[in-house]
C-alpha cells in the first residue's frame, strides 16, 4: 500500500494568504483586524525579531566574524536564504542572467531590507514619455494608503515639496554623519541635490502601539530589531495579526498551486511541508498571493486546469512577463581629510541618513527615467574583511610627515595605518528605473523541478541601452561627486566592457512586474485592485502587480497597494460581490 | 514598550529571554517541533549551527603550518603600546577556522606557507619558523610591498596579501582589536549628530542637509 496521501482540511477560511512579506503581512493585518478568519502559508520557518535578531552581537560572536559564507549579507543578517537555496534551483535562458534572492522565513525579505521607504510619484504612475504603459491608477489613488502606512508603520524624513518624490507623514529624521556632510558639500558642487533620507525606522513613539519601541540607534536594521523599532512584516504585521486571534500561520508550507473549482474560481491551495514532505490541501473563500513577484508568478503558471489552461489568471499570457529589477551601480573610496579622525559613536539608524532623489531633466539626457543615490561610509563595526584596503590606500596619500610611502607593509607602521584610515571610507550607489519589457520574463522551465517536485522558474532577462546609458551616467556622476569632495576613488573604474558596473538583473532585489495590473484583460492579469481578471476571488499583493517601478524602492508601494487591496476585499465582501 | 523595557529586550540574559518568550505569543503552526541533534540556536537555521559544529571539529593546518601562521601574523600585527599581538587576539585560531569555512583559502594558504619555507630553506637552510627574526624579515620585506616586489616574488606577494587580510580580519574583529581601532558603537544610545568640536575641526558648522 502506498504511503502517499494528501491531507485535506475541512475548514474553509475566509482567505488564504500565501507569503508573509510586506504584501502578505499587510493583507493579513487588515483582514484579521476586520474579523476575517485568515490562514497564512509561509514557505520558510518561524522568525520573530524579538527572539531571533542577531542585533547587538559583536563580531567575535560569529566564528566567521560576520562574513557572508552562509548568508550573502553576512552572518548577522536577518535572512534565512540567499541567491541560491539548496534543492530549490532556478534556471536562465539564452545565456541571459537573473539573480533571484529568496528569504525563507516569517516576514520574508522585510527582516533584512534597507528600510529605505520612498513613495512612487505622479509621473511614476503615469509616465509622460510614452515609453512604458501607464498604471491604471494614479498617485492620488494610492496617496491615502501611503499616508495610512506612514502613520501605522512609522517613517522618518523631511518634507521637501519635490513633485515626483512625494512627501509623507514623517517622524524626525536622524542627523547626517560627518562623511555625509562632506557628501552634501561635494554633491552640491557637482550639481546633485542631497536631502534627508526616508526610512521605515521609528524615531518617535507611535501612539497606542505598546508592542514597538523607538529606535535606539545601533545602525543594525539589517539584522532586524528586537524592540520592533523598524519595519519588518514579521514584527509589525504578522505577529500583531496573529494576536487578534483571527490569523493562523503555518510555516514551512511550500505552495504548489492554487486549486480551482469547475467554474474556475479559486477554492484553495495545495502545499508541501518542507520538513516532513507531507502533502496538504487547505480551502478558503478567496486566495491572496503574496509570495513575491516571481514566486507568485510561478504559482499561477503552475496552477493549470481545464478552466485555466494557460495557468491561473493568465488568459492574457502576461504572467511572468515585464519582469524588472532596479538598476544599480556604485563607486567607493575614502576621504583623506578624515585620516586620524576623532572617535565617537556614529552608528545612527540602519537605513539611510541622506540620499539624492532624481534631479535631472531627461530632455537633456541620452537615456529615459532616472535614479536616486544612496550613500555610505563612516566608523562602522569591524567585521570580516576589515582593513582589507588599507595596504593599498597607505600608498595613495602622504603619511603624517607628508611623505609618500610604499603601499603594503606590516608591523607597527601598518598597525598605525589601520587606525589612521579607520572611518575614512565613503561610497555611493545608484538605484534606477529599469524599463519593464515584455521580453524580460520568467516562465516555467519544462525540464526542471525542485526537490518538492514543483516545476521551477526559468529567467530571460537582458539589459538594454536605456539601462546601460543610465549606469554610465551614474559612474560619471559619482566620480564627479568624489572629485568635488576631494575623495580618493579605490573602486575599479567601470567602462563599456562591464556595462559601466551595471549590476546583473535581480541583484538589487527590487524585482517586480510579473503579474501586472491594467484595465484591459487582454494586456494585464489583474484589475486595478490587484484582483485577477479571470478569477474574481484571486488577488495578488506583492510586487507582481507593478506596471512600471520608478527609481523608488518597492516596499512602501507594496504595503500601500496591499492595504488598498485588502480594504477593497472587505468592501466587496460587504456588497457580496465576492 | 517603554525605553526601560526596550533596553531589557536587547539584553540576552536568561531572565529577560524568559520574559520575552512569555511576552511574545507564538503563532499556531501545524508543524510539530522537529527533534534535532543540536539545540536550536535563536535566529540561526539548523543547518548553519550543524555546519559550524562540524567545521570546528575538523583540523586543517598541521602544527608546523600553525606555527608559521603564528609567526607571520605577529609580524603583521605585533604588540604595541595600544594593544597586543595577533596571537594575543587568537588570530591563528581564527585563520584555522576561516579556511575551513571558505575552502577557497586552503590551497593558496597551504601552498603559500610551503613557498615561504622553500624560499627560506634555499637562503638559510631552515624553515621559516626556525629562521632568525632578521632572516624572516628579510624575506617578508620582499613580499610585503606589492608594487616594488620583484617579478619572481609574485607568488609570495599574493600569499602575503591574503595572509595580511586574514590577519587584519581576525585581529580587528576581536574585543582587543575593536578597542584598538576605537569603534565605540553597538550600544543603545541617541544620535545627536556630529559633535560640535568635530564640526568645527572640519569647518562643517554651516553645512545642513
From TrEMBL, chain A:
Cofactors that this protein relies on: FAD
An example Gene Ontology molecular-function term: flavin adenine dinucleotide binding
InterPro entries for the chain: FAD-dep_OxRdtase_2_FAD-bd, FAD/NAD-bd_sf, GMC_OxRdtase_N, GMC_OxRtase_C, P2Ox-like
Every Glucose-methanol-choline oxidoreductase N-terminal domain range: 137-325
Pfam families in the record: FAD_binding_2, GMC_oxred_C, GMC_oxred_N
FAD-dependent oxidoreductase 2 FAD-binding domain boundaries: 14-47
Protein name in UniProt: FAD-binding protein
Family membership: Belongs to the GMC oxidoreductase family.
Keyword Glycoprotein listed: no
Transmembrane segments: 12-32
Organism: Pedobacter planticolens
Origin superkingdom: Bacteria
Automatic annotation (TrEMBL), chain B:
Basic and acidic residues biased stretches: 37-52
Entry superkingdom: Bacteria
Region ranges (Disordered): 30-52
The protein, known as: Gluconate 2-dehydrogenase subunit 3 family protein
Amino acid at each position: 500500500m502506498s504511503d502517499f496521501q494528501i491531507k485535506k482540511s475541512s475548514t474553509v477560511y475566509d482567505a488564504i494568504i500565501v507569503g508573509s512579506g510586506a504584501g502578505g503581512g499587510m493583507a493579513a493585518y487588515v483582514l484579521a483586524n476586520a474579523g476575517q478568519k485568515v490562514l497564512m502559508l509561509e514557505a520558510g520557518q518561524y522568525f520573530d525579531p524579538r527572539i531571533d535578531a542577531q542585533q547587538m552581537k559583536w563580531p567575535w560572536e560569529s566564528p566567521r566574524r560576520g562574513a557572508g559564507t552562509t548568508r550573502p549579507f553576512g552572518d548577522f543578517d536577518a535572512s534565512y536564504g540567499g541567491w541560491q537555496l539548496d534543492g530549490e534551483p532556478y534556471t536562465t535562458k539564452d545565456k541571459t542572467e537573473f539573480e533571484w534572492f529568496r528569504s525563507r522565513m516569517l516576514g520574508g525579505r522585510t527582516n533584512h531590507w534597507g528600510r529605505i521607504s520612498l513613495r512612487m510619484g505622479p509621473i511614476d504612475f503615469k509616465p509622460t514619455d510614452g515609453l512604458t504603459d501607464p498604471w491604471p491608477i494614479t498617485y492620488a489613488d494610492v496617496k491615502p494608503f501611503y499616508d495610512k502606512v506612514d502613520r501605522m508603520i512609522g517613517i522618518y524624513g523631511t518634507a521637501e515639496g519635490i513633485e515626483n518624490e512625494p512627501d509623507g507623514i514623517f517622524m524626525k529624521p536622524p542627523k547626517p554623519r560627518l562623511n555625509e556632510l562632506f557628501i552634501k558639500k561635494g554633491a552640491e558642487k557637482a550639481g546633485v541635490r542631497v536631502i534627508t533620507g526616508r526610512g521605515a525606522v521609528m524615531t518617535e513613539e507611535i501612539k497606542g502601539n505598546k508592542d514597538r519601541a523607538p529606535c535606539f540607534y545601533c545602525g543594525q536594521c539589517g539584522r532586524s530589531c528586537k524592540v520592533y523599532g523598524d519595519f519588518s512584516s514579521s514584527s509589525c504585521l504578522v505577529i500583531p495579526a496573529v494576536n487578534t486571534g483571527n490569523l493562523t500561520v503555518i510555516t514551512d508550507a511550500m505552495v504548489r498551486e492554487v486549486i480551482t473549482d469547475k467554474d474556475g474560481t479559486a477554492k484553495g491551495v495545495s502545499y508541501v511541508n518542507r520538513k516532513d514532505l507531507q502533502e496538504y490541501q487547505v480551502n478558503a473563500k478567496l486566495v491572496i498571493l503574496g509570495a513575491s513577484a516571481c514566486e507568485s508568478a510561478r504559482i499561477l503558471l503552475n496552477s493549470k486546469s481545464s478552466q485555466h489552461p494557460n495557468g491561473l489568471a493568465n488568459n492574457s499570457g502576461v504572467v511572468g512577463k515585464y519582469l524588472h529589477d532596479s538598476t544599480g551601480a556604485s563607486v567607493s573610496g575614502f576621504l583623506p581629510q578624515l585620516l586620524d579622525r576623532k572617535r565617537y559613536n556614529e552608528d545612527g539608524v540602519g537605513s539611510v541618513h541622506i540620499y539624492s532623489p532624481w534631479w535631472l531633466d531627461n530632455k537633456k539626457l541620452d537615456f529615459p527615467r532616472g535614479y536616486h543615490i544612496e550613500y555610505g561610509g563612516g566608523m562602522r563595526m569591524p567585521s570580516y574583511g576589515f582593513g582589507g584596503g588599507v595596504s593599498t590606500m597607505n600608498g595613495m596619500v602622504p603619511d603624517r610627515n607628508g611623505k609618500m610611502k610604499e603601499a603594503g607593509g606590516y608591523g607597527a607602521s601598518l598597525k598605525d595605518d589601520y587606525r589612521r584610515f579607520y572611518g575614512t571610507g565613503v561610497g555611493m550607489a545608484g538605484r534606477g528605473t529599469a524599463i519593464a519589457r515584455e521580453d524580460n520574463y520568467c516562465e516555467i522551465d519544462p525540464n526542471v523541478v525542485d526537490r518538492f517536485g514543483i516545476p521551477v522558474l526559468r529567467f530571460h532577462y537582458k539589459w538594454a541601452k536605456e539601462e546601460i546609458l543610465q549606469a554610465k551616467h551614474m559612474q560619471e556622476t559619482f566620480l564627479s561627486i568624489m572629485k568635488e569632495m576631494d575623495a580618493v576613488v579605490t573602486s575599479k573604474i567601470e567602462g563599456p566592457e562591464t556595462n559601466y558596473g551595471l549590476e546583473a538583473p535581480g541583484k538589487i532585489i527590487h524585482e517586480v512586474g510579473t503579474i501586472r495590473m491594467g484595465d484591459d484583460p487582454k494586456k494585464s492579469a489583474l484589475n486595478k485592485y490587484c484582483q485577477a481578471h479571470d478569477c474574481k476571488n484571486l488577488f495578488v499583493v506583492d510586487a507582481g502587480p507593478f506596471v512600471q517601478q520608478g527609481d523608488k524602492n518597492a516596499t512602501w508601494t507594496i504595503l500601500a497597494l496591499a492595504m488598498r487591496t485588502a480594504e477593497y476585499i472587505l468592501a466587496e465582501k460587504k456588497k457580496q460581490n465576492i | 514598550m517603554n525605553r526601560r523595557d526596550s533596553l531589557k529586550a536587547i539584553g540576552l540574559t536568561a531572565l529577560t529571554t524568559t520574559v520575552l518568550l512569555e511576552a511574545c505569543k507564538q503563532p499556531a503552526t501545524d508543524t510539530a517541533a522537529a527533534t534535532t541533534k543540536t539545540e536550536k540556536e535563536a535566529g540561526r537555521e539548523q543547518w548553519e549551527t550543524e555546519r559550524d559544529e562540524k567545521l570546528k571539529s575538523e583540523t586543517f593546518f598541521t602544527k608546523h603550518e600553525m606555527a608559521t601562521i603564528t609567526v607571520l601574523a605577529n609580524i603583521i600585527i605585533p604588540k604595541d603600546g595600544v594593544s597586543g599581538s595577533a596571537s594575543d587576539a587568537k588570530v591563528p585560531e581564527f585563520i584555522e577556522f576561516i579556511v575551513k569555512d571558505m575552502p577557497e583559502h586552503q590551497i593558496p594558504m597551504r601552498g603559500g606557507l610551503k613557498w615561504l619555507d622553500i624560499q627560506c630553506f634555499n637562503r638559510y637552510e631552515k624553515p621559516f619558523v626556525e629562521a632568525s627574526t632578521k632572516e624572516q624579515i628579510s624575506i617578508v620585506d620582499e613580499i610585503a610591498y606589492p608594487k616594488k616586489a620583484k617579478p619572481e616574488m609574485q607568488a609570495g606577494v599574493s600569499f602575503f596579501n591574503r595572509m595580511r587580510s586574514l590577519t587584519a580580519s581576525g585581529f580587528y574583529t576581536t574585543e582587543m582589536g575593536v578597542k584598538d581601532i576605537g569603534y565605540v558603537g553597538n550600544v543603545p544610545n541617541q544620535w545627536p549628530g556630529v559633535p560640535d568640536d568635530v564640526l568645527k575641526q572640519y569647518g562643517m558648522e554651516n553645512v545642513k542637509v
